[in-house]
UniProtKB/TrEMBL annotation:
Residues 22-469 form the Aldehyde dehydrogenase domain. It comes from the Bacteria. The active site is at residue 248. Belongs to the aldehyde dehydrogenase family. Keywords: Oxidoreductase. It comes from Rhodoglobus aureus. It holds the Pfam family Aldedh. This is Aldehyde dehydrogenase.
Length: 473
């Protein structure tokens, strides 16, 4: 696009009330991306007012018709894949194949939830004679959806699709660095027939627009995906307002490889786990726990696989100069903490990608789980390896983290795999593959990784609340 990007309110493009815009940067070139509206509380007030007007009609909208609209949006996303890809690449610099996979996944969310519009169902409760008691699941009304920059369209689709399917209307705020695809999604929703006001997008800074969404008295639920720090700020406001929250926050996920695993496959998966989307993934597998007897051999395999990644072709850049500088600070920290650099690090520069925010896949060994590089989310393609001797030790190290988003384990012993998965404090455990699962699989965290669940049928419970109706006859 590389043009002006405005809010989308009540089915039309609307300039920000204050007339302010901010220039976004293409991290793949260091050049300009879109000139993005920088909205304020007035824009949120307008969007929430439009959403509120639409809410009553959307709640009563015939469910089959609502399902058809969601399905039509899935089809429209696929038909516009090239356009989405251009915008996503401009905003995030990711390679085309990665962008296209994200877009397909985004369509899959709308497709999946289009078939589940009747699923938020209630129960009939037989309590005593002459009583007919039933429950129904109802939408909250206006839902605020705040998303980060790493997989912008995917994050918007993941939260919006179940919100719409269960009868809510949405005011969404994408990250200011990567807003274009969320606006296009809302435009397409209008084009395929979503009633005006059901899907609104307001652009701008998190501290301004994000805060205004969470604070608005007519916003009845918020789904937030982003950092722990922002999650806490939002949590305070939501606690004050007593509104429900879904918080999808960070991670420092452990990937455990036992000596009996298929080491060739596990090495490929271990690399995919930490380097996908240049490590800018909440569920990245950034702590590789390896049974001591195979540690050195396995590390060599992982280093070999990772050294074949070509930044620019296989792996995109980091999103901003700030993120780039932050990851480089972790390289200095790793050295100061005494970790052994096995691959990458700050000495690797890419002259052909000059001006863009690329870092090399980076691997450290000699790491203790107490070091900051093993405890903090770096959000770059940085892996630490930690040896362990026993199953119990692997579990203890994996769980010794402030986070609990996902975990992986590789072993041919199914009993051990199930024992370890029982003991792991994480919302998802992947055995003999590193995957973040399909759109059908519930997703969310323990501990600082957040609460509530997105994806799957489970998400519909988080976008509805239960009403009990008692009839005495
Ligand atoms: P961030 O918290 O800085 O920003 C996320 C969103 O919140 C953006 O839209 C931002 O503008 C907005 N925001 C910022 N300050 C705000 C405030 N005070 N009030 C309301 N909204 C505000 O996070 P980020 O740097 O964009 O994203 C990276 C983080 O997101 C990482 O920690 C990553 O682990 C996490 N993440 C989690 C998941 C998940 O599903 N668990 C997925 C992707 C990313």
């Amino acid at each position: 696009m590389t043009g002006k990007l405005d809010n989308w309110i009540a089915g039309v493009s609307v300039a920000p009330a204050g007339g302010r815009y901010e220039q976004a940067t293409n991290p793949g070139t260091g050049g300009p991306s879109a000139l993005v509206a920088s909205g304020g509380a007035e824009d949120i007030a307008a969007a929430v007012a439009a959403a509120k007007i639409a809410a009553a009609g959307w709640k009563r909208y015939p469910s089959a018709k609502r399902g058809r609209l969601l399905h039509a949006l899935a089809t429209a996303i696929r038909a516009s894949a090239d356009k989405f890809a251009d915008l996503e690449i401009e905003d995030t610099g990711k390679p085309l194949a990665v962008a296209l996979a994200e877009i397909e996944n985004s369509a899959a969310y709308f497709e999946f939830y289009s078939g589940l519009v009747n699923l938020p169902i209630g129960e009939t409760l037989d309590v005593e004679p002459n009583h007919h008691i039933f429950t129904r699941r109802e939408p909250f009304g206006v839902v605020g959806i705040i998303t980060p920059w790493n997989v912008p369209l995917n994050q918007a689709a993941r939260a919006c699709a179940p919100a719409f399917a269960s009868g809510n209307v949405v005011v969404a705020k994408p990250a200011e660095t990567s807003s274009q695809t969320t606006v296009l999604l809302a435009k397409l929703a209008t084009e395929v027939g979503f009633p005006d006001g059901v899907f609104n997008v307001v652009l701008g800074r998190g501290s301004v627009v994000g805060t205004a969404i969470v604070s608005h008295p007519d916003v009845r639920k918020v789904a937030f995906t982003g950092s722990v720090e922002t999650g806490r700020l939002i949590g305070h406001i939501a606690a004050e307002r007593l509104i429900p929250l879904t918080l999808e926050l960070g991670g420092k996920s452990a990937n455990m490889v036992f000596a009996d695993a298929d080491l060739e496959f596990a090495a490929t998966e271990a690399v995919r786990a930490f380097s996908g989307n240049a490590g800018q993934v909440c569920s990245a597998g950034t702590r590789l726990l390896v049974q001591r007897e195979i540690h050195d051999e396995f590390l060599a395999r992982v280093v070999e696989v990772a050294s074949r990644i070509r930044p620019g072709a296989d792996m995109g850049p980091l999103i901003t100069r700030t993120q780039f500088d932050q990851v480089k600070e972790y390289f200095e920290l790793a050295a100061a903490e005494g970790a052994k650099l096995e691959l990458g690090g700050s000495d690797v520069v890419y002259p052909e990608l000059d001006g863009a925010f690329y870092v090399a896949p980076t691997i450290y060994s000699g790491v203790d789980n107490g070091m900051r590089i093993a405890r903090e989310e770096i959000f770059g393609p940085v892996l630490v390896t930690i040896p362990f001797d026993t199953e119990e030790e692997a579990i203890a190290i994996a769980n010794d983290s402030d986070f609990g988003l996902i975990a992986g384990l590789f072993t041919k012993d199914i009993s051990r795999a199930l024992r370890v998965s029982d003991a792991i404090e994480a919302g998802q455990v992947f055995i003999n593959s590193w995957s973040t699962g399909a759109v059908q699989t519930p997703f969310g965290g323990h501990k600082n990784s957040g609460y509530g669940r997105e994806k799957g049928i489970e998400a519909l419970h988080h976008y509805t609340h239960v009403k009990t109706v008692v009839v005495v006859y």
